[in-house]
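#structure-requests
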Amino acid sequence: MYAFCPRKYWHRYIGHWFGWTDHAHERTRLNYRLTKLESIPTWIGKRVHSGISSYLSGDLDIDIVRSRTLELMQSEFKVSEGPVRGPKLFKLQEHFYDTISGRSELEEAQTRVAEALDAFLKTGYRTDFEKARSAGRFTFKEDDLRTWPDRELFLPELGMDLESVPIYANPDCVFQHKDDGFVILDWKTGRQPGAEDRQVITPQLALYVLWLRHRHAGAGECPPDRIEAYECYLPEDELFGRALSEDDLQRTVRQTRNEILKLRKLSDHERYNIVPEKRCEAKSGQATCGSCPFRFREVCRDSAI
């Protein structure tokens, strides 16, 4: 996000702090409110993720999960249609900016979520996950860690000067094969990459592998080529990724280190990279500002909108 627009990074991760308090400056309060907006595509992805996590818990049939998920979306959409009454109340970005035409968007979003959940049922990952859990092998789903401190990852590989800097990682699904290999899955509901990227390991996937090796003792000694990491696009059930190599992990460590050092040069806080707004230049323009939730001039004074 910082590379896309440094000012958007500042608004998303820094400028909203304490905007939830009664004594906060009006601009800070609005900034905080805007961080809580969800676009319809983000909302669809969130509901697919939560539905799959519920299904992986093993307690509910997929029909119940689907029904409850769609009912929740109906309720959330109704709340979003109403007036803004509190900073923590659910609100779609499209409602906030009045760019939504009606309830057809709800029906379309529900259809996409239902299709993704039904597609997940056909993949067989629930069976693989349950077999691993029943056999006492390692399993993990995204809501197993609910607080930010639980999701902090500290990497000695970054070097002694950065090993106390937290990296936040939370894979969607992990399970261990009977041959002691591991599979990491990251659900995606957006547009797929091109076929030429089918075996590309993104930094996110590589960080998930590092997370696994540090979190689970059995994975710590596991060679990276025994750990497969994939982005799984639903409802298409298309996989992008592969088994990793040490080069993949070392390259991601170098990239992560360079990004942290870049922010640290601008920051007044060594641990959390708190960068002053004046050092975060806005990349104003229709391409960057058009879909940005912080496009209000009351928040981003350099908005092109």
